[in-house]
Amino acid sequence: MIENYQDLPPKLYAGDIDECFEFLDARRAADSNSADYWHWRAVTHLRAQQFEKALDICFYLTRESDVFGYQIHCLADACSHLGLKETALTAIDYFGKKPTTQAIGAFLWRVYGWHYLGEDQRVLDLNADGVDEHSVYVLGHHQARSQMRLQGIEHGVAAMHRWWSSPEARRVLFPHLNLDGCLVLQDDFARVVALGDDPAHRAVRAPSHRDHDGTNAGLRHQHDRIEHARFDVDGMHHVIALGLEYLLYRCHA
After folding, report:
1. Between the N and C ends of the chain, which has fewer C-beta atoms within 10 Å?
2. How far apart are CA 114 and CA 61, in angstroms?
3. In angstroms, rounded to a whole number, what is the distance separating the alpha carbons of residues 181 and 227?
4. Could you give the dihedral angle defined by the CA atoms of residues 40, 42, 43 and 46, in that order, rounded to the nearest 10 degrees?
């Protein structure tokens, strides 16, 4: 039984899509002004192979919210399934040019999005000048993967170890793990999904019709900035994309 949003990831992994939709439907009246709600709905549509509905919600969030950015993973996956690579690349460019998008947000969208979409040379051409330590490691292990795809596995192994699996990488990328690899539990999982803890930062007006009819929806927010700490610093880089791999470290898989 799903009692809160923390219960969604394992249910999505298990393929209990109908149960996830039932939970989201029940929460709609109370949470439909929350970007978190629409984000999880998009992910559930993605797992249900309803790619157009997932993509509509991702575009809605990208257009209307100035402080939420986690939809890049779902957006890239949906576009890939639909054969809309150029559409996804345009969305990445749009997000980067929004007046309210901070430079670190645009940078991370390029790292994740370009890598997901197979733009490996563009990923390799990125540099981490002026970004925080955590984002340096994010770029490093994505560049290692892109190098493997372009040049062969053997050419990226050393970089993958440095930026992903070395003790130093573990410390930087997964601060919620102790040195023995055990989880340091955190009660508030939902905050990791969004850019910003304050629900007011994430509030959006619900689409007026069904999920995919939100083109005129507005935005309510208190701050006009991306809060990078909730986009990336907790080491939750792939919470959404089809492989939700990092949830393994938070006992949700």
Report:
1. N
2. 19
3. 27
4. 160
> Is the backbone of residue 194 left (phi > 0), alpha (psi -120 to 50) or beta?
beta
CA 46 – CA 73 distance, rounded (Å)? 11
- What are the structure tokens assigned to 232, written together? 């990336």
Identity of the residue numbered 29: A
Closest CA to 220 of 27, 75, 19, 66: 66
pLDDT (tens place) for every residue of the chain, 253 residues total: 999 999 999 999 999 999 999 999 999 999 999 999 999 999 999 999 999 999 999 999 999 988 889 999 999 999 999 999 999 999 999 999 999 999 999 999 999 999 999 999 999 999 999 999 999 999 999 999 999 999 999 999 999 999 999 999 999 999 887 756 555 444 333 333 333 333 333 445 444 433 433 322 222 222 222 223 233 323 333 333 333 333 333 333 3
Q: Decide: 173 and 134 in contact? Cβ < 8 Å.
A: yes
Q: Which residue has the tokens 């507005």?
A: 218
Q: Which amino acid is at 178?
A: N
